[in-house]
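tl;dr need the bound structure. longer version: we got a ligand (fe (ii) ion) that a collaborator sent over and nobodys looked at where it sits. i said id run it. heres the input, straight from their email, havent touched it
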Amino acid sequence: MKIVQLSDTHISHLGGATTENLQRFVALINDIRPTFVVHSGDVAILDPDNAEDREAAREILAGIQAPLRVLPGNHDVGERPENAWADIQVTSERVRAFSSTFGPDHWVETVGDWAVVGLDSEIMGSGLPEEEEQWGWIESLPALIGARPTLLFSHKPVWNPYPAVTEHNISIPDASRDRLLSALADVDVAAFGSGHLHQYAVTQEAVGGREVLAVSAPATGFAHAGLGGSALAQQGIVEYVLGEGDGAGSVRPFFRNLATLTEVPPTEIPEFASALDALGVSL
Ligand SMILES: [Fe+2]
Ligand SMILES: [Fe+2]
């Protein structure tokens, strides 16, 4: 069985390179014929309050033939206050606006013999009522999932792969990670998938005395080369092959991309510059 994760589409209603790249990836995803597709956030180019960008993204994503679930990123709902990019903080109104277009900001799906869980990482550490509601729901998951092997997705990584980088809210807060892992101690999580970094990397993380895969998905919109490290700063998607070869609960992530993409820094994308201007932000 195949599940595809795409991430960080950063779509502008003005179109441009990120739109054209996503259209090509939609065709690739349909060629792969996955059973289920996850978008791990930063659907919109930059501004969570721009409903036109959200709607433009929704229309392109509607071309995906497999069932799709979408998670919010910091550019969709804002993020927790400290170091929020351009001071765009997560609010209940922004979470509601996201959900009205893309559905719930956290969800669980049964896909074949697997469970696939999506978490809203942007409300973690926010103190919003939505955060406590999500924790209550997370604590109900073990009874719901039972013995199924599970994939868990969030926009921000659960572990910070670049401990030296502290200024970008690069992962969920340490206290949230501890609470999450403790709440899911009885769930057979086979892999964690995240977005936000715009880099592809696969690491092994120690969880409850065993090693679990953590997959940082590449962006479809544009890559980030500036974080350092040895991760692959190229655009793409991740195809997860589940339950083949190494047993029923096994997972193998594959990096997939296309030779027809526009692969330039965001500063060379005019629609990105327009979105920055509209926010009054200069880099
Ligand atoms: Fe992003
Ligand atoms: Fe992000």
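gonna send this back to them w/ a short note. The helical segments are 17-32, 51-61, 74-77, 92-102, 129-145, 174-183, 270-279.
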